[in-house]
């Protein structure tokens, strides 16, 4: 089936498109102010697991950060954030949750690094909901090697 458009419909559409350009919002010409703080402290990790942290240096510099420090850690990331050693950090969700559980005052902003986890179960487990009430072994969960799922 052919759809034809009359000359009148074409000119109406063309006129509306031209008029829309005339009433479009003007481009913002003001520059952003530089950040209030120009320094940031990140954990120094040698592994590829925290690749986003290695890439962010160039992005932070472009945003106006002039003092980007990589701090060697003698403690885990949540505790380093709580003690003011780090400003931001990356870590496994279990480490973050354990820190929050211990009362560390921090916020988790985004999820990173989920590809290295694998859950080994038996045939009775068909999904994550089936883990309720079971014991699960984890790495780096405070001082315990297992946790009870709610």
Q: Report on the biggest sheet.
A: 2 strands, parallel
What is the overall pLDDT average? Answer: 75
Helix content: 25-40%
**Spatial arrangement of strands, main beta sheet:** 1-2
CA-based gyration radius: 26 Å
SS strand fraction: 5-15%
What is the succession of H and E elements?
A: HEHEHHEE
Please work out how many helical segments DSSP would assign: 4
Q: Stretches where pLDDT falls below 50 for ≥5 residues?
A: 141-150
**Shape call:** flat
**Count of strand segments:** 4
| Derived structural class | alpha+beta
Distance between the termini: 60 Å
Structure, described:
This protein has four helices and four strands, in the order αβαβααββ. A hairpin with a 2-residue loop joins strand 3 and strand 4. The C terminus is likely disordered. The chain is α+β, with helices and mostly antiparallel strands.
Summarize the structure.
This protein has four helices and four strands; from the N terminus they run αβαβααββ.
Task: Reconstruct the topology from this structure.
Layout: H1 7-22, E1 39-43, H2 51-62, E2 67-71, H3 77-82, H4 93-101, E3 135-141, E4 144-148
Parallel strand pairs: 1-2
Antiparallel strand pairs: 3-4
Short key terms for the protein model shown above:
150 residues, alpha+beta, two-stranded parallel sheet, two-stranded antiparallel ribbon, 29% helix, disordered C terminus
């Amino acid at each position: 089936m052919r759809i034809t458009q009359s000359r009148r419909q074409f000119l109406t559409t063309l006129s509306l498109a031209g008029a829309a350009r005339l009433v479009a919002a003007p481009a913002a010409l003001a520059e952003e102010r530089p950040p209030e703080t120009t320094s940031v402290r990140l954990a120094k990790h040698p592994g590829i697991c925290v690749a986003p942290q290695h890439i962010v240096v160039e992005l932070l510099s472009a945003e106006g950060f002039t003092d980007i420090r990589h701090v060697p850690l003698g403690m885990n990331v949540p505790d380093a954030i709580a003690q003011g050693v780090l400003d931001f950090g990356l870590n496994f969700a279990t480490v973050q949750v354990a820190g929050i559980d211990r009362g560390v005052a921090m916020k988790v902003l985004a999820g990173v690094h989920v590809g290295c986890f694998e859950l080994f179960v038996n045939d009775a487990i068909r999904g994550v909901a089936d883990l309720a009430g079971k014991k699960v072994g984890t790495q780096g969960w405070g001082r315990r090697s297992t946790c009870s799922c709610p």
